[in-house]
Write a structure and sequence with these properties.
The structure is a single chain. The protein has a single domain, classed as Ribosomal Protein L30, Chain: A (2-Layer Sandwich), CATH 3.30.1390.20. It contains two helices and three strands. Strands 2-1-3 form a three-stranded antiparallel sheet, with no helix packed on it. It is an alpha+beta fold and 66 residues long. The chain is elongated and about 45 Å long.
């Protein structure tokens, strides 16, 4: 049997407020599932999620977990 490669996960935490940010950045934060300051979510490490993180990197803290 072939071993299934375990995908990495990312812990994404909002560390800065979205007040005063551009509308598309606010929508991206909401799409990630973040609701408020210091709220964290765990997402699969995919190119789509990485793009969302890149767009709002000044508002987030990201760490890789297994």
């Amino acid at each position: 049997m072939a071993k299934k490669k375990k995908s990495k996960k990312l812990k994404i935490t909002q560390v800065k407020s979205i007040i005063g940010q551009k509308f598309d950045q606010k929508r991206t934060i909401e799409a990630l599932g973040l609701r408020r300051m210091h709220h964290s979510v765990i997402k699969e490490d995919t190119p789509q999620i990485r793009g969302m993180i890149f767009k709002t990197k000044h508002l987030l803290s990201v760490e890789e977990i297994d």
